[in-house]
Specification:
Layout: H1 3-21, H2 24-35, H3 59-63, H4 85-93
């Protein structure tokens, strides 16, 4: 990943964090939970996808209505999954047993 893209992604992450921390609605909800006698741990995960646009595309093509269907993605299962120790802890916390022999 090139440095300008890394910088832009960091800026996006900072903007998301700032907007969450400055949200009165979120602060009120967390305050209510704390007043009810609980500690609050807020962990959010964002999946952000991006593709480089074709720099030679005509402006007309960008404005045209897209009627073609996206090609369907297919996945092939190998039957093997490797879990990290963090994965195991998370699944155990959810009371999900994982058979390591598979």
């Amino acid at each position: 990943m090139d440095e300008p893209l890394k910088r832009l992604m960091q800026e996006l992450g900072n903007a998301i964090n700032d907007s969450l921390s400055e949200s009165d609605r979120i602060a009120e909800a967390i305050g209510e939970i704390k007043r009810a006698g609980y500690d609050v741990f807020l962990v959010l995960e964002a999946t952000i996808g991006f593709n480089r646009r074709d720099e030679h595309a005509d402006d007309e093509d960008e404005e045209a209505e897209v009627t073609e269907e996206e090609p369907k993605r297919t996945f092939e299962a190998t039957g093997k999954i490797k879990f990290t120790s963090q994965d195991h802890r998370f699944l155990r916390a959810l009371k999900i047993a994982v058979d390591d022999e598979r």
